[in-house]
Every structure is written in C-alpha cells, then in structure tokens.
Design brief:
The chain is mainly alpha-helical. It is built from 19 helices and four strands. It folds into two domains: 351 residues, no CATH class; 91 residues, no CATH class. α5 packs parallel to α8, α13 crosses α16 and α18 packs across α19. The protein is elongated, with a radius of gyration of 25 Å. It starts with a helix and ends in a 5-residue tail after the last helix.
C-alpha cells in the first residue's frame, strides 16, 4: 500500500499537470530559435562546435542547452512537445526530491507536500516551466537536490555508492547551469550543522567549483557593457531586494493587476517578516533553508541590468523548504496567503508566454506559406512591433525552414524598440528595396494584424514619395 508521502507526491504531480497543462501548447519563441540552429549537425567539427557553443553571456551549458537542443531538434524537429516533456520530467524529479530533503530536516509528510506546492506555485518558477530555453534552471535544481539527497543518504547509511552518486550529480550540474558552483557551500552548511564529520568529504568539491569558475572566466572574460556586464557595488543590496520582492509574491500580482504600490510593499513586508520568523524559529534547519534561497542567487547579483524572474527557480526551493519546515496551522495560513499572491500571477505568466509563442508561430507560418508560393521572391516585413521582432525575427526563425531572404522593409525598424538595438541590422536598404520590388524580386507584407497583407504597391508609392508605411 502506498505511503502517505507517496500519495501526497502524486497529488503534487497532478497539480503540476492540471495547473500548467497550457505549457504543452506553447510554441518556440525568442532564444529558442537561436538554440535550434545548433541542429542538425553534419560533421564531427559541427558536433564539437555545437556541443560547446557559448551564447548566454559566455556560459557553456552542455547538457541543459546545447545537448538538449541538438538532440531534441535533430530527432523531433520543430515540435515543441518533446521539449516540454523534458522540462516536466525535471520538474517531477524536483517534486520527488524536495520532500525527501525536508523530511530529513525534520518536516512532516504534510510539510513535504507544502514544500512541493510552494515551489510549484511560485510565479517565477512558472517561467521556467513554460519557456523551453529556461530548461537549464529546472535541470540545475533537480541535480542540486539529487546531490544533496545522496549526501543525506550517505550520512544515514554509510554506503559509498551514495557518495559516488552525489559526486556524479554534482559534476553533471556544471553541464546544466553555472549556479551549480554553490553546491559545496550548501552541502557544507548541512554537514556543519547536522553531520560535522562529513565536512572533510565535502572540502574537495570547493576545489572543483573554483576550477570551473576559473575556466569560465578564462574562456569567457566578463563583459564590460550590456545587460550581462558584471557590476560590483552597493547596488547589489538593491538587487537582492528586487529578488526578495519577486519571490514573496505581491509585486508579481501587482505587475499583472495594477495593484497600488503601497499595498504591494506592505504585503511583501508581511511575507518577508513571516519568512524571517520561520527561519529564526527553526534555527539550524531554517538557516539552511535561507542558504538555499540566498546562495543560488549570488552568481546573479552582479548582473545589475539583467534581473530576471526565472533566476528564482532554484532559490524558490529554499522558500519551499522553509514552508515545509514551518508547517503548522499558522504556517498553513502563511502558505495560503503566499499562494493567493503567486497562483494568479503564475496563471497569467503562462498566458503571457503562450500568447507570445503563438504570435511567433503565426508569423513564422505565414512567412513559410508566402515562401512556398513564391520561393524566388524576397520577403520584406512591415508592421512589426517590438514583441514580434524579439519573439520571431531577431533569432532568425525563418532560416530553420531554409528561408534566408526575409528582411525588414525600410522604415519598419521605427516601430521596434528592442533592448539590443538590433532591428536596423535586419532592414533592407531603401535603394536596394526599391530596385528589388520594381524588378519583382521582392514583395512587402504587413504583419501587424491577424491576417498578413501584401502591401507592395502601397509601400513602393510611399518610398518614392520619401515616406514610409
């Protein structure tokens, strides 16, 4: 007969599917297209390049990004479902491991269930469940928890295979996300407070993390400008507070519903106060939960201009552990309030990403259809807003279909305000556009509405008059 903890885990898994089922209807968009260009590979040289290709601020995420997109892209093509199934598989692994960890820290079965729901219900975690490119966050958390759970099992049983499995999960974690470097500190914190003789077993892991960090900085020196520039200073405390606000929940709900800032701030302070009280009351276990929140945030804090909600996917596990450890009647009320803030925001987060992906799909499919009917004719797009440019055009989605003659029409960049200022690079120069259109080698299409319109004749008249659509 199944134990109560197993039944509660089954309920949590059902919650994952019922609440986040719309993620399976999310198509590719934005960075997804950039990574999909890694597949297929046609030679050993391409394989090596694609396997170790760095994109996100110089980081090489061999397993969670490069291998993920190469393998799934080669086998399944432009079918997002298998990608989403991999994400949900990692999330299910997290649901299995979180209660195993918090119960060993003193939580009840119901506390383990509370930890599962608190992690799943976080609206920042929702981003990593619906955006395929953020698989690295969920995979990293799964491997961190797997290593941590194996360390706990080694402490209980003395079985060396658990120590070996911990090392395996730890090493694999570097292929998921650079945040993995903090694992030795998390493991040492637990060992120092609960199993001090194991500290010597953990010490070598610090050398591995240090070596990994050194290689990363050697191969990819920090950027001096742009969103990924590392900026040290007092602003880091402000960055910490931004993440605390997002993790607490009220500010996330206020973002979607336009709640008064004063109400959001007061509610945030209430949630933070409850968390601090829980940490103080649970002592060592509470401090460890706080470490699980703060330490995985540390690699992101110098990124002053790149504060992202999905960076809380791993730290949210610390909040989940704290909720599980502090489970009681009063704790249940706090969890209920937390979910009241986060669940509506999580639902709207999925809706936003779903709509963004559908917009990308509609534009890509329209261009593919145009190209199928006129394969020799260049396609110039106008009526492009910032969201559409970032979701479908900036990462060359059309080239995945072998279409390389798509450009922005002259003047189309005026309605685009992308952060990187890339839009002008995609524009066909006016003199060339005039020549191509007059020769019948190009046509202009307006994609601003639900239906794509051929506006070639209108565009040609306006260009000759010195104006733009």
């Amino acid at each position: 007969m199944a134990s109560r903890s197993s039944k509660l885990t089954a309920v949590a898994a059902a919650f994952l599917l019922v609440f986040y089922w719309r993620c399976f209807d999310i198509w590719f968009y934005q960075d997804d297209f950039g990574w999909l260009h890694l597949a297929p590979v046609r030679s050993i040289q391409e394989l090596v390049h694609s396997f170790f290709f760095a994109k996100a601020h110089g980081s090489v995420r061999v397993l969670s990004t490069n291998a993920y997109f190469m393998l799934f892209g080669s086998v399944f093509g432009l079918n997002p479902l298998p990608f989403h199934l991999a994400v949900f598989g990692a999330a299910t692994g997290v649901l299995l491991l979180i209660p195993a960890v918090v119960r060993r820290l003193g939580a009840s079965d119901w506390g383990g269930f509370a930890a599962q729901v608190v992690w799943l219900g976080n609206s920042c975690v929702a981003v990593s469940l619906c955006w395929i490119s953020i698989f690295n966050q969920t995979m990293c958390l799964f491997l961190l928890l797997a290593a941590f759970a194996c360390l706990m099992r080694y402490s209980e049983t003395g079985g060396r295979r658990w120590l070996a499995l911990q090392w395996a999960a730890f090493i694999l974690g570097f292929g998921a996300l650079e945040v993995n470097v903090v694992y030795p500190a998390l493991a040492l914190g637990w060992a120092w407070w609960f199993a001090r003789p194991l500290c010597r077993k953990i010490a070598p892991m610090f050398a591995v993390s240090a070596a990994y960090a050194a290689v990363q900085f050697l191969l990819s020196p920090p950027e001096s400008s742009g969103p990924y520039a590392l900026v040290m200073g007092w602003h880091i405390f402000g960055t910490v507070w931004k993440y605390v606000e997002m993790a607490a929940g009220p500010i996330r709900l206020a973002h979607f519903l336009g709640l008064p800032k004063g109400l959001a701030l007061a509610s945030t302070l209430l949630m933070v106060g409850a968390a601090v009280w829980a940490v103080w009351r649970k002592r060592k276990a509470g401090w460890l939960a706080a470490a699980w929140f703060l330490l995985p945030l540390m690699p992101y804090l110098p990124l002053r201009d790149h504060v992202m909600d999905y960076y809380l996917t791993v730290p949210a596990a610390g909040l989940a552990m704290l909720a599980g450890l502090a489970w009681s009647r009063a704790g249940a009320l706090t969890v209920a309030l937390y979910l009241a803030f986060h669940l509506p925001a999580a639902w709207m987060t999925v809706s936003w990403h779903r709509e963004r992906s559908h917009r990308a799909r509609d534009v890509v499919e329209a261009v593919v259809e145009i190209h199928r009917n006129r394969p020799q004719q260049a396609i110039l797009l106008t009526g492009v807003d910032t969201a559409t440019f970032e979701a479908a055009i900036a990462d060359l989605a059309f080239e995945l279909y072998g279409i390389k003659n798509v450009r922005l029409a002259p003047g189309a960049e005026r309605t685009i305000r992308d952060a990187g200022g890339l839009a002008p690079l995609y524009v066909m120069p006016l003199d060339k556009a005039l020549a191509e259109v007059e020769a019948g080698r190009a046509a202009v299409y307006d994609i601003s509405g639900p239906r794509v319109r051929n506006v070639t004749a209108l565009s040609l008249r306006l260009w000759k008059a010195g104006s733009f659509p």
